[in-house]
Amino acid sequence: MTQSPETPEERLKALEIKLPEPAAALAHYLPYSLAGNLLFISGQIAIWEGAMQFEGKVGESLGLVEARQAARVAVLNVIAQAKAACGGNLSRVKRCVRLGGYLNAAPTYTDHSTVMDHASDVLIQAFGKDIGQHARFVVGVNSLPKNSPIEIEAIFEIAPD
């Protein structure tokens, strides 16, 4: 009988999910910031290892499937930033407090939550339900950096190192 994975790194490996290298800031900001035991991750877009994976407006040039895939890329970038902030040890994450999403959406698009659900699901898969479940928001916006269809930010509670 195989034992279920316990650490986030073991869960990611079991799911065959590889994290990207943490993306550098695209402007004058920090990719993450620590305030006591709270870790704030700056907005992460649908970029993987320096290359945009998805571009465009959801509900116009991109459909639901592509938007959900873009959300997956963005949230994996969030997790990569969290790992960097935790000195490479994702087990320091005690819980995801809040996940926020900005969707580059057509004015008539209304399926924001379904797109963001995919990012929420990835966090729960990576950290387990107790740690990965979170408060959340998602809003539609007119544009995002690099024409990304989505930008995701997060707040985590972390244990001291």
Labels describing this entry:
single chain; alpha+beta; 60s Ribosomal Protein L30, Chain: A; five-stranded mixed beta sheet; 7 strands; 161 residues
Could you give a short description of this structure?
This protein is α+β, with helices and mostly antiparallel strands. The protein has helices at 8-14, 64-85, 112-127, 129-132; strands spanning 32-35, 38-45, 47-48, 51-52, 93-104, 135-141, 150-158.
Q: What do you see in this structure?
A:
- This protein is of the alpha+beta class.
- It has a domain at 36-97 and 112-158: 2-Layer Sandwich (60s Ribosomal Protein L30, Chain: A).
- Helix content is 30%, strand content 27%.
- It has four helices and seven strands.
- It has helices at 8-14, 64-85, 112-127, 129-132, and strands spanning 32-35, 38-45, 47-48, 51-52, 93-104, 135-141, 150-158.
- Strands 1-2-7-5-6 form a five-stranded mixed sheet.
- Helix 2 packs parallel to helix 3.
- It is globular and about 45 Å long.
- The relative contact order is 0.24.
- The mean pLDDT is 95.
Determine the CATH superfamily of one domain: RutC-like
CATH architecture of one domain: 2-Layer Sandwich
Ends apart, CA distance between termini:
33 Å
CATH level 3 topology of one domain: 60s Ribosomal Protein L30, Chain: A
**Structural class computed from helices and strand pairing:** alpha+beta
Q: Strand order, main sheet: write it out.
A: 1-2-7-5-6
Helix content: 25-40%
How many strands, which pairing sense, and closed or not: the largest β-sheet?
5 strands, mixed
Low-confidence stretches: none
Proportion of residues in extended strands: 25-35%
